[in-house]
Amino acid sequence: MQRRNLIKVLLAGVAATTLAASFGARADDQVIKVGTVSGPDAQVWAVVQKVAKREGLNVKVIEFNDYVQPNAALDSGDLDANSFQTGPYLDSQIKQRGYKIVNAGLTYISPIGVYSKKLKSLGDLPQGAKVAVPNDPSNENRALLVLQSKGVIKLRAGAGTNGNNATPLDVAENPKKVKLVELDAAQLPRALGDVDAAVINTNYALAAGLQPTKDAIALEDTHSPYANLIAVRAQDKDKPWVKKLVAAYQSEDVRVYIKNQFKGSMIPSF
């Protein structure tokens, strides 16, 4: 009888150990699917994958070639997270499509900057200075917010936020009576000789041989609403893997990689 009971106890112990191991394996084998876009974003996520792996988180990166599918795939459950968009873009997608998606953490910003061939700083702007800005609604709004953050102008209350794109008509205070010149964004680098300063997107600045961190006399703040982010479903935002995923991206390894690889065209927002 004692021997039979002993065998039962041993078998129960083996079963419990096997079951615990099984659950442990499942936890370790969990794969977090992250959607991003091909190019620099995907390059950065290759580094994030390695950091996450060291912390016990398996990340599978799925690349997309447009800005519509990653949010649709996240909302439907085909992805666990995505990383490719700015805050204003996510807000517009939520408004248009009703997604239950939230910002889990910031990644980087491709900063819009103020450039000049005549001035060393925005403080040197003369009275009546000509400042060129992009003429498309989204980038003009972004440019005006930068000028406001640097004290050049002040917009009326509510302008430039919550999807209300600001225009020069929304300027409430303009102490130096700056003249805002609206131009096509791609033309702004060529206009530098004709204006006192121009607010230029990073892609056009780089194409013109300008380095944001070296040549700009003022840069957008790295915690601007236009910083890129990691998005997850609202129901997942407090899950442990989300914290691990964001920490992996916001690690020193990733910070150093972005700074060394992209030379100011992408600046860490963490």
UniProtKB/TrEMBL annotation:
Q: Where in or outside the cell?
A: Membrane
Q: Primary place of residence?
A: membrane
**Keywords assigned:** Lipoprotein, Membrane, Palmitate, Signal
Where in the sequence is the signal peptide annotated? Answer: 1-27
Q: Name one Pfam family in it.
A: Lipoprotein_9
What are the record's GO terms for cellular component? membrane
Output the InterPro entries linked to this UniProt entry. Answer: Lipoprotein_NlpA
Q: Out of the domains of life, which is the source? A: Bacteria
Q: How does it sit in the membrane?
A: Lipid-anchor
Give the protein family: Belongs to the nlpA lipoprotein family.
This chain belongs to which protein, by name?
Answer: Lipoprotein
* Species this protein is from: Paraburkholderia bannensis
